[in-house]
Design a protein that fits this description.
This protein is α/β, with parallel strands linked by helices. The chain has a domain of about 220 residues: NAD(P)-binding Rossmann-like Domain (Rossmann fold, 3-Layer(aba) Sandwich). About 45% of the residues lie in helices and about 15% in strands. The chain has twelve helices and twelve strands. Helix 3 packs parallel to helix 4. The protein starts with a strand and ends in a 5-residue tail after the last helix.
Length: about 350
């Protein structure tokens, strides 16, 4: 049985591919010609070079495949051409769903995101929260909301699609790094003078990948499953990192208005020079409300067992440090437990 994984060169996708190989599956990965495979280079994988926008490459990747994990996504809070995000996340997902239907795959796990339901409600949002497109802040969240709707519609039309909804994965092998990884690295490298009042649900990336396999084993077609662990404010996250590393956590709370003003100024300058801003406007806008959720359904129905976030953060810190993401001066100050 061949399993296809898209996004296997990325943070979460590499862990999904790794765990599938570990349990003895034959794994094929779809990778772009420009992608680095450093996160999966040690794995016995079958490679198909292609792109979610290249229909012929999707048909090649689907040949003989029984199950698909569609983990690939353009996860950016800033892009020179915002249409690229929609082309990959929405158009690419539609293309993949159509290719899976043509190939007659038996199951497709679509990786969505907590962002499609993490909106302001009197009670904590969960998989049954009906969020609207107009509640999505920024192009990434809007594109993922639209792509998730495509996946759920395909399930209604007979394609065996189940939706996995990771919250905020943290841990090792975040080589790019992700926007969340950049926050952790800013802390480790002493580039975070303060913080804004916000919060997220975090989960260890290895456990989130294991949750994808549980979604495939025990999930129901057409259903959504949040894969999360702990709701933490940004201040609480930074305090955990301080405890892990012995580094001082920033103590200054920055008002959202100030942070947004700085973000707009930096964004304008970044567009002039063609460089990604350190503080994306979308990131500050998203931070205006806490993205806390009730992620208990997967634990009850799938047997999902996320570990402590502090342990995942420690694994991530060790990996960043060992792989040269932390400056030598700051690295010497980090005091990790043996």
């Amino acid at each position: 049985m061949t399993t296809l994984v898209t996004g296997a060169a990325g943070f979460l996708g590499s862990h999904v591919a790794r765990q599938l190989v570990a349990r003895g599956e034959t794994v094929r990965v779809l990778v772009r010609a420009s992608s680095s495979n450093r996160a999966i280079s040690d794995l016995p994988l079958e490679y198909v070079t292609g792109d979610l926008r290249d229909l012929a490459s999707l048909d090649r990747a689907m040949a003989g495949v029984v199950r698909v994990y569609h983990v690939a996504a353009d996860y950016r809070l800033w892009a020179k051409k915002t249409q690229d995000i929609y082309d990959s996340n929405v158009g690419g997902t539609k293309n993949l769903l159509a290719a899976a239907k043509r190939a007659g795959v038996e199951q497709l796990i679509y990786t969505s995101t907590v962002a499609t339901i993490a909106v302001d409600r009197p009670e904590l949002p969960n998989e049954f929260t009906d969020a609207k497109l107009e509640e999505m802040v920024g192009h990434y969240k809007r594109s993922k909301w639209m792509a998730e709707r495509e996946a759920l519609q395909a399930a209604k039309e007979g394609l065996p699609v189940i939706v996995a909804m990771p919250t905020t994965p943290v841990g090792p092998w975040d080589w790019k790094p992700t926007p969340t990884g950049k926050i952790i690295l800013d802390f480790l490298n002493g580039k975070m003078p303060g913080y804004v009042e916000t919060g997220l649900n975090f989960v260890g990336v290895e456990e989130c990948a294991a949750g994808h396999l549980l979604v495939a084993e025990r999930g129901k077609v057409g259903e959504r499953y949040l894969l999360g662990a702990e709701n933490l404010t940004l201040k609480a996250l930074l305090d955990l990192l301080a405890t892990i590393t012995g580094l001082r956590a920033p103590g200054m709370k920055i008002p959202h208005g100030v942070a947004l003003g700085v973000a707009y100024l930096e964004s304008a300058f970044s567009r002039l020079v063609g460089k990604e801003p350190q503080i994306p406007v979308e990131g500050v806008k998203i931070a205006k409300h806490k993205m806390f959720v009730d992620a208990s359904r997967a634990q009850r129905e799938l047997g999902f067992k996320p570990g402590p976030v502090v342990a995942a953060l420690e694994r991530g810190v060790r990996w960043y440090r060992e792989n040269g993401y932390v400056t030598a001066r700051r690295s010497r100050k980090i005091k990790l437990a043996a």
